[in-house]
Amino acid sequence: MESKIRISYGNIDIEYEGSEDFLKQEFSRLLHTILELFPQDATTTNVESNNDDSQKDTTANDKIEGTTNTIATKLDVKSGPELILAAAAQLTFVQKQDKFHRKDLLKNMQSASNYYKKSYSGNFSKYLDHLVKKNKLTEQSKDIYAIPADIRREMEAALVK
After folding, report:
1. Per-residue pLDDT tens for 14-52?
2. Which of 3, 57, 141, 154 counts the highest number of beta carbons within 10 A?
């Protein structure tokens, strides 16, 4: 059976039309290789599959909604660094920002009134450095951050439950 698939992965677009056997046998290896080669481009992944029954799949992040408070609750935030990640998730999944400025991240974190403490602002730089060193955030350029692909997938799974 003939199948068609199109994957948009950050700045990368892949299209395939051909044997369904290839997709069944080789697709996961191909996707895994792409994730290894381009982890920083894992900002948005859309998969469209067009078989005889014309099915279409999109990422789960299209279903993620809410404020930073809502996301912090779903992620069970208990610390400043965890609140930064919740704010980053809100910017990424809800506001659809693949990259965000440090000041926007701080402002978004401060908007989570149920979780935010004043001491988090004083420790913000230390928390960011820690998150970058632990590969929970990547610094794309000076004061511009993004969530790495593997952390995005983990967060996405936790947020769509």
Report:
1. 777 777 777 677 777 777 677 666 665 444 444 444 444
2. 3
Strand intervals (E) in 51-153:
100-101, 138-141, 144-146
Q: How far is CA 122 from CA 5, 83, 106, 116, 127, in A?
A: 48, 14, 11, 12, 10
User: Which residue, 131, 102, 129, 127, is CA-closest to 117?
Assistant: 127
Between residues 158 and 105, the one the model is more confident about = 105
- Where are the strands (E) in 57-147, listed by range? 100-101, 138-141, 144-146
Query: Do 146 and 137 contact (CB within 8 A), yes or no?
Result: yes
Helix (H) / strand (E) element for 12: namely: strand 12-19
* 57: DSSP letter: B
Cα 15 versus chain centre, distance:
22
